[in-house]
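Appendix B. One record, verbatim.
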Amino acid sequence: MTLGLAPGGTIVVWIQNQIGNEIEVARMKANEIEGDPDDYRAATKRYLEENADYLKQHGVPTKGW
């Protein structure tokens, strides 16, 4: 599965098993989240400060989702 993010908030989802045989399965418009972007940036910075060592050691899990 491949997710594509395009300007204007478009999200496209493809399924493929080899390069060249992609099948587009969804095209969606993202919803804008209310709030101040600086609040999100601050929360992300805090999260990374608190969890950076773990993420460096273990990485971001991508299996079993």
